TrEMBL record, chains A, B:
PROSITE patterns: HTH_TETR_2. Gene3D superfamilies: Homeodomain-like (1.10.10.60), Tetracycline Repressor, domain 2 (1.10.357.10). InterPro entries: Homeodomain-like_sf (IPR009057), HTH-type_TetR-like_transc_reg (IPR050109), HTH_TetR (IPR001647), Tet_transcr_reg_TetR-rel_C_sf (IPR036271), TetR_C_16 (IPR041678). The keyword Heme does not apply. SUPFAM superfamilies: Homeodomain-like (SSF46689), Tetracyclin repressor-like, C-terminal domain (SSF48498). GO terms for molecular function: DNA-binding transcription factor activity; transcription cis-regulatory region binding. It comes from Nocardiopsis mwathae. It comes from the Bacteria. Residues 11-71 form the HTH tetR-type domain. This is AcrR family transcriptional regulator. Keywords: DNA-binding. Residues 34-53 bind DNA.
Length: 193, 193
């Protein structure tokens, strides 16, 4: 029977690559890890890693089981809501985090970054390179300003899902959007830094 | 030789009470722990706990080695800068967190709340009762709005000190004040929720 490109064991190979990727990211950080090193640790050719996942960024997204690639999703939201991205960003963010199936892998990553310096280094590298710098450049933001939007969103994660402060945990998503969108807008539109 | 009120072993007794308090908070949460229970666990009279520390809130502040009591400090800052508390709050906050001796105990508490559900319950109880509700009431804020200011500040902690995203970690405090004060002001002044 002819197989259409999928080798037997492809699923295992993918899993083996992702396992190796998690190890390499933990050992060398996001910046230090390479496709070549991940391939070597998984015992496969670097071209196969690229074939399955793409660039290092996509390997990271798959390895950390992120529900989407923020480097693609966030610019798409901003582009779609050019007039007022703040409200769209916070609404999308709450949608992702309020749904248990997308929340769980993100929560695991945050908990691990808060508790372990290795994990913190991985998250910091990805956020700094991909989220802060790349997205900021694309939209002509100061990188610090992009990071401060991230800071507001991560604070919300801490209050609503990690620590679970009652008044935030039980609030309706739209109540949070109403209070927080103007704050995110203030960072986006502020012109003095 | 006459002693002036300090019994021998007072330091040990204080430490014993604080140790008992940490255990009681971890076991019963902030809401569930009582001065009576802490006293019993420390083998002392409840009046002695009150004599050394005051109310449960002050026992918590001492037990967690917080550098100050936020329930007293934050209202003082707001009262002192009635016209524009946002900038004063963020500048004070950065001062506390940028100094290693005040940062360390706070960082320990955050790390532990992020990684352990018991610790998260303790932090959530204190923040909900003392920071969110009491301060919000005092200044006529909606509690959710007070919590969203906390959310912005905790996000900053995550980005600058815990994960340490480079562009935030290395930023000058005044750069952060310039970007973040308008965002905090937007939450304070927004009238629609």
């Amino acid at each position: 029977m002819a197989r259409t490109g999928r080798r037997p064991g492809a699923t295992q190979t993918r899993e083996e690559i992702l396992r190796a990727a998690r190890e390499q990211f933990a050992e060398f950080g996001y910046d230090g890890a390479t496709i070549r090193g991940i391939a070597r640790a998984a015992g496969v050719d670097p071209a196969l890693v690229h074939h399955y996942f793409g660039a290092k960024e996509q390997v990271f997204v798959a390895a950390m089981r992120l529900p989407f690639n923020p480097a693609e999703k966030i610019p798409a939201i901003i582009a779609e809501h050019r007039d007022d991205p703040a409200e769209a960003i916070i609404r999308f963010f709450l949608g992702v985090w309020d749904a248990p199936e997308t929340r769980e892998p993100l929560l695991a990553l945050i908990r691990s970054a808060a508790g372990h310096e290795d994990a913190a280094a991985v998250v910091q590298g990805f956020m700094n390179d991909v989220i802060v710098h790349r997205i900021a450049e694309e939209f002509g933001f100061a990188p610090l300003r992009a990071a401060m939007i991230g800071s507001q969103l991560f604070g919300l994660v801490l209050m609503r899902y990690v620590v679970g402060v009652e008044v935030v945990r039980t609030a309706d998503a739209e109540q949070i959007v109403a209070i927080y969108a103007p704050a995110i807008r203030a960072v986006i539109e502020g012109g003095d830094a």
